């Protein structure tokens, strides 16, 4: 077999890592696939730009079509991101019979089914391990490792930026805005952090994980997303006092043919393994009917961790090429599932209320919960009441999201409740 | 394709789980491989024994050869354990062209290379995901997920019995012997617990993990093993005071062509992710050159978790059968490595000494360390000295195992040291 030729689309952080691994691990890779792997062409925005890696200038091009239509290229590695040109280019690459490895979560979350269908038609592989949780091989784990099991729940810390911010807030008592600014200076958060802090990035990743885990088609619009911009230091401190950490969790649950997928700041019991995943690290907790509780932990981003997953996918494509079995192992989504309604989504809740400090208020509040069939696990008054009123923390037993919304509606009408300061889902 | 027929060798805990999954998940499995999977024959020790699962008695046999020589059987699933008959039967199954899925760590640690070679010759698959860490898909992760990376270090809590005992000792302050007795009553420890508590079971699993992780041939006799039977409550309490937990860790390290693999009770910093793996849970921490720190957590044993891995391997075999590519994905061990000598194995150490309580003793002790080039990170006197002497805790900087052994030899000759109460490797 002649050497396998890669067309690399993008030479940013991850693209540079891919070059480093393919070149630095030549011998290791050749030992595994008995074929040399070569990066033949690289798409860049500006050929003349200075780079911190030595690259043969003759390999660089600013024209993606030159790469995807080059008959010598076997595999397209797409690490440029975005969903406009990437999609067009990948579909054309498949049309040309080239295999595709991509790290593009936006593309796979929005257009995964279309791309995978095209790949099957053309007998091509499309692998995308790096699109979720960087260096953690969670996609192959869901497809192969748990092929025999029925996955009931996936909980993921799949966005490093927000986990970094929440960890700093928890460990150093800093305010959200200050930590966000620091994260931006360190390059952990983007200048426009919306996609990360509002949970949209996590929602895209949960779309991919839940599709694979439940072997079903999950659409991005089915995933509800709430971010961390409203998380206060007060919430985090109260959580810690009660034995919880606040984490931005993607939560996907399945019960027979009903599923729900959401992203929200969640209070997680400190004894739960995902509660101690700190900083920019990612983790995916998977609860299978037979296997029970498992968790997979590692770097969720960064040049080398993400490149590791990209190149592992390249190795898988090359193995399939040698075996002549490309395009046959695509993910099957045979389960027909329906979204749970808010009446069917159940969890415990934490609620922090600012209330009037007078006799009878607690009874009124308890009456609201009871009349709406929400059972209370505990009520605490975390600090002494003062002139402006009192604070109450309520933790519920498991209840439906709809019932909790009805409680919130009632409290908004109740004079004794001055403010609903925060409401969190509780896990663990 | 006609239905795939399995010959199940063994109907103990794991075998029963395999039957439950294959029968209970018929539809899910058929959706993935577009073929039905059927357990055609089952080897048992006693056909007449009452069982807690409904089995067609006509499928049961007490003769393994009837199964491995049955031309209708495609895949042998070996969950009977042991290394005598299992090896003979598996080699014969391969000779007959049958694929093999096994959960047998002893067999794979001792005879893995011979079995895998035979499988390649015969074009058969041999998969053994369930042999290490039960439900955690760590073997496919090492082979496929990290195919592009160079793994530098693997640390594993791969024996649930000892982790249960150490967790109980740490959390409840109970003595080793009492917890062992309780574990035996609960069925977490065997009547003869030697293989677990002396680290032999963990050593076998580390042989498998390090062979795969380093893509090299590691022999069981190269793995040094020390168990937990000498771990005292005192050690655990001192460890906790200093911010450590005592864990039975398998540690495999690679530096270029030098490797070392060992199992020993280790003090792990509480902030390290593996330190909080408690009870019968297993975890494997993998540090790759490119991917950095990762960890994989889950149930290490038990009927359903282990059966999940076995049946995932069956699914992989069936996929390969349909693709016509069996026997080609066997693990490659192309790295030629040498064992590190004790001079080359480096780590930090914890040492607890009982010494004479008189002026000059500390200076004498410090002199021994210094003369043998072992640098001290900290010295503590954990409790007030009394008539019988004083206790000293010393934590070293990273030093060689050989140097540490020389320190121990010197202390054994030094009158001021009444007793070397314990020595632990320190990680994290």
From TrEMBL, chains A, B:
InterPro entries: ACT-like_dom_sf, ACT_dom, Asp/hSer_DH_NAD-bd, HDH, HDH_cat, HDH_CS, NAD(P)-bd_dom_sf. Pathway: Amino-acid biosynthesis; L-methionine biosynthesis via de novo pathway; L-homoserine from L-aspartate: step 3/3; Amino-acid biosynthesis; L-threonine biosynthesis; L-threonine from L-aspartate: step 3/5. PROSITE patterns: ACT, HOMOSER_DHGENASE. Gene3D superfamilies: 3.30.70.260, Dihydrodipicolinate Reductase, domain 2, NAD(P)-binding Rossmann-like Domain. SUPFAM superfamilies: ACT-like, Glyceraldehyde-3-phosphate dehydrogenase-like, C-terminal domain, NAD(P)-binding Rossmann-fold domains. Its EC number is 1.1.1.3. NADPH binds at residue 105. L-homoserine binds at residue 190. It is an enzyme of class 1 (oxidoreductase). NADP(+) binds at residues 9-16. One of its GO terms (biological process) is threonine biosynthetic process. Pfam families: ACT, Homoserine_dh, NAD_binding_3. One of its GO terms (molecular function) is NADP binding. Belongs to the homoserine dehydrogenase family. This is Homoserine dehydrogenase.
């Amino acid at each position: 077999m002649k050497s396998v030729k890669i067309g690399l689309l993008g030479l940013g952080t991850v693209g540079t890592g891919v070059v480093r691994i393919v070149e630095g691990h030549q011998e290791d890779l050749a030992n595994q696939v008995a074929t040399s792997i070569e990066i033949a062409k690289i798409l860049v925005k500006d050929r003349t730009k200075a780079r911190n890696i030595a690259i043969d200038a003759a390999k660089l091009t600013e024209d993606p079509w030159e790469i995807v239509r080059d008959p010598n290229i076997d595999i397209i590695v797409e690490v440029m991101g975005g969903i406009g040109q990437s999609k067009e280019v990948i579909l054309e690459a498949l049309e040309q019979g080239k295999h595709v490895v991509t790290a593009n979560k936006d593309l796979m979350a929005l257009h995964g089914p279309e791309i995978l269908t095209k790949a099957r038609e053309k007998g091509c592989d499309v692998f995308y391990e790096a699109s979720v949780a960087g260096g953690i091989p969670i996609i192959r784990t869901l497809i192969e490792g748990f092929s025999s099991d029925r996955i009931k729940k996936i909980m993921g810390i799949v966005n490093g930026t927000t986990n970094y911010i929440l960890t700093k807030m928890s460990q150093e008592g800093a305010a959200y805005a200050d930590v966000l600014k620091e994260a931006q200076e360190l390059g952990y958060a983007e200048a426009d952090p919306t996609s990360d802090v509002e949970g949209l990035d996590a929602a895209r990743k949960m779309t991919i994980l839940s599709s694979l885990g439940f072997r079903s088609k999950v659409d991005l619009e089915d995933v509800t997303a709430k971010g961390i911009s409203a998380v206060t230091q007060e919430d985090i401190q109260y959580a810690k006092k009660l034995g919880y950490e606040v984490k931005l969790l993607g939560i996907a649950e399945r019960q027979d043919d009903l599923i729900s997928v959401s992203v929200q700041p969640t209070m997680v019991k400190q004894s739960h393994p995902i509660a101690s995943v700190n900083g920019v690290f990612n983790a995916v907790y998977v609860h299978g009917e037979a296997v029970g509780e498992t968790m997979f932990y590692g770097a969720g981003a960064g040049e080398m961790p993400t490149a590791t997953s990209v190149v592992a996918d390249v190795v898988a494509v090359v193995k399939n090429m040698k075996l002549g079995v490309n395009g046959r192992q695509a993910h099957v989504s045979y389960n027909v599932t329906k979204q749970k309604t808010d009446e069917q989504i159940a969890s415990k809740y934490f609620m922090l209320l600012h209330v009037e400090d007078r006799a009878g208020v607690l009874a009124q509040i308890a009456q609201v919960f009871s009349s709406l069939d929400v059972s209370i696990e505990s009520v605490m008054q975390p600090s002494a009441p003062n002139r402006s009123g009192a604070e109450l923390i309520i933790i519920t037993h498991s209840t439906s999201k709809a019932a909790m919304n009805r409680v919130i509606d009632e409290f908004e009408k109740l004079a004794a409740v001055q403010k609903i300061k925060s409401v969190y889902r509780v896990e663990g």
